[in-house]
From TrEMBL:
Alphabetical list of InterPro entries matching this protein: His_Pase_superF_clade-1, His_PPase_superfam, PGM_Phosphatase
Protein name in UniProt: Histidine phosphatase family protein
Any GO CC annotation of this UniProt entry: cytoplasm
Taxonomic placement: Bacteria, Bacillati, Bacillota, Bacilli, Bacillales
Record-annotated active site: H9, E83
Length: 197
C-alpha cells in the first residue's frame, strides 16, 4: 500500500488579506512558519519516506521545515503541484474583483486555469509519485485549490467542498489501483481554535 500525505502550505500575508495567490511566489509569514513547525512536529511521530514540494516558495518553505525536523531531504520539486493559475485575479481580494468586474466576475474569461485542467495535472502528478515509490509513505506539500482538484480526480466520491486549512494534512492510500481518503483537512497539530467572546 502506498500512502500520500497531502499538506497545504503555511499561511502568508496574502492569505490573511484574502488575496488570490495562484502562481504568485509569496513567502510564509511568521504564523506560517509556526504552523510549519507544528505540522513537522506532528509528522515526526510517524513514518515518512519521501518529501516532495510544489516549486512555489510558500510550499518549499513549509517542506523545508518538515524535512529538517524529519531528517530526510526534499526528494524533489513538482511544478505540476503548484497552485492553480489565477490569471487576472491574482493579487486581488473579492472586493477588488467586485469593484473591477462586477458580481458576475466568476462567469468572465479572466484567464483562470480550469478546474478540469487542475484536476488532470494534479492527479497525474500524484499517480506518478506513487508509481515511482510503490509501497512508500510520501509527503507532498502543495496548495489548497490544486489539492482539492487533485482529490476530485483521485477519489471521485470524496466531499472536498471544505476549503483546506493552512498546514492541514489529508491522507490518501493506493491499494489495488484504487485511491481512498482516510483523513481530510486535519489541523489537530494547531490545537483548539481560539474562542472569541
Amino acid at each position: 500500500m502506498t500512502t500520500i500525505g497531502l499538506i497545504r502550505h503555511g499561511s502568508t500575508f496574502w492569505n490573511k488579506e484574502g488575496r488570490a495567490q495562484g502562481h504568485t511566489d509569496n513567502t510564509l509569514d511568521e504564523e506560517g512558519l509556526q504552523q510549519a513547525a507544528a505540522i513537522a512536529e506532528r509528522l515526526s511521530g510517524e513514518q515518512w519516506d519521501y518529501i516532495y514540494s510544489s516549486d512555489l516558495r510558500r510550499a518549499r518553505q513549509t517542506a523545508e521545515v518538515i524535512a529538517d525536523r524529519l531528517g530526510i531531504p526534499i526528494a524533489g520539486l513538482v511544478p505540476e503541484m503548484r497552485e492553480m493559475f489565477g490569471g487576472l485575479i491574482e493579487g486581488t481580494t473579492e472586493q477588488e474583483r467586485l469593484d473591477r468586474w462586477g458580481s458576475e466576475w466568476r462567469t468572465m474569461d479572466l484567464g483562470l486555469e480550469t478546474p478540469e485542467a487542475g484536476q488532470l495535472r494534479g492527479s497525474q502528478a500524484i499517480a506518478a509519485l506513487a508509481a515511482k515509490h510503490p509501497g512508500s509513505n510520501i509527503l507532498v506539500v502543495s496548495h489548497g485549490a490544486i489539492l482539492r482538484s487533485t482529490l476530485r480526480g483521485l477519489v471521485p466520491g470524496l466531499d472536498v467542498s471544505g476549503l483546506l486549512k493552512n498546514t492541514s494534512i489529508t491522507k490518501i492510500t493506493l491499494a489495488d489501483d484504487c485511491w481512498e481518503c482516510g483523513l481530510y483537512n486535519c489541523v489537530a497539530h494547531l490545537g483548539p481554535p481560539l474562542l472569541h467572546s
